[in-house]
Every structure is written in structure tokens, then in C-alpha cells.
Amino acid sequence: MSHHVPTAAGVLTIVGGVFILLAGAALAAIGSFLAFFIGGIAYLFYIGLVVGIITLVMGILMLVMPQMKTAWGAITIVLAIVSLPTALGGFIVGFILALLGGIFAITYKVAAQPMGSMGMPGMPMPPMAAAPMMGGPLPAVCPSCGGANINAATRTCMNCGRTL
User: Fold this and answer.
1) Residue 135 in domain
2) At what angle do helices 7-35 and 93-107 cross, to 10 degrees?
């Protein structure tokens, strides 16, 4: 995996999702048992399963689509809070892990590359790239990561942090 992926956030969210899923499964089993005695509310016990599955998916998406890490983190925080009444917060452990994973995803910053590298550690910069023209036009996409999120004021890529 690339170093641009919020790995800790994704792993914490996945592990938290597993706990939420297990607690949701336990509640679903209890709900199925109670459905024999209490009619119409049995489906409410299955919400914890859905919350656990979606939390797992958010953790996987943090690793697979890191450019959307802020959205995945916000959704994970909401799911962690929703898991408290619907899946007992994944025995509270799942709630804490998913909440931390969501916070880590939102606050994750890509480490800036050292001035002398072009993405390959230890490799010297080509002569043209070593002295960029400060007044020249900005490229439409970052040559390093291909992202189109370029900050014209600082002349940096907002996805990977590379100076253009």
C-alpha cells in the first residue's frame, strides 16, 4: 500500500466494525428469539447488523479510496454513534475503535516529500525539476500523483503535498 493511505484509520475502523457486527449479530439472535413472543419489532434488532457491515465497508474504503478519507471518516463517526443504541456500541470496544478510526481518517495528513526527491527516496531530482519556474503556469494535474486538486497560492498538490 502507498504511504498516502490512512492505514491506522482503516484498520481501527475495520476492527471496530467487526466488534459492532458481532454485537449486532448477538442482538439479532435475541431479536429473532423474541419475535416469537413479541410480534412486529423484531426487525429493529437487525439494525445493528447493518451498522456493523457499513462500518466494515467504511474501513475498507479508507484503504482503497484514500482521496475520500474525510467523507469516510465522517460517516464512520456517525455510524459509531449510531452503534451505541443499535448494537450496544460493539460491546463499547467497537464504538471506541470505530470512533478513533473516523477521527484519524478526518485528521490524516499526507507527509510532505523531502525537497530533493521526486517520489523515489534516494534518487536525485532531474535538472529541470530542481529549479522550477516560479512564475510559470501551473499544471492541470499533479505530475506525482495525478490529482487535480492544486493550490495556486502555495503551488502545491493538495492530495500528495508535492511542490509544483
Assistant:
1) yes
2) 150
Phi-psi region for residue 124, left (φ > 0), alpha (ψ -120 to 50) or beta? beta
User: Torsion angle of alpha carbons 87, 91, 95, 100, nearest 10°?
Assistant: -160
Where residue 35 falls among pLDDT bands split at 50, 70, 90? confident
Residue 154: φ, ψ to 5°: -100, -5
Residues in Cβ contact with 85 at an 8 Å cutoff, skipping those fewer than 6 apart? none
Q: Give the pLDDT score at 130.
A: 44
DSSP per residue, 20-38 = HHHHHHHHHHHHHHHHTTS
Number of domains in the chain: 2
Is residue 116 in some structural domain? Answer: no
Q: Which segments within the chain are labelled E, that is strand?
A: 150-151, 156-157
- Tell me the whole-structure pTM to 2 decimals: 0.68
Domain-located, residue 49: yes
Q: Is residue 27 located within the same domain as residue 84?
A: yes
Q: What is the pLDDT of residues 128-142, one digit of tens each?
A: 544 455 567 888 888
Distance CA 89, CA 43 (A): 18
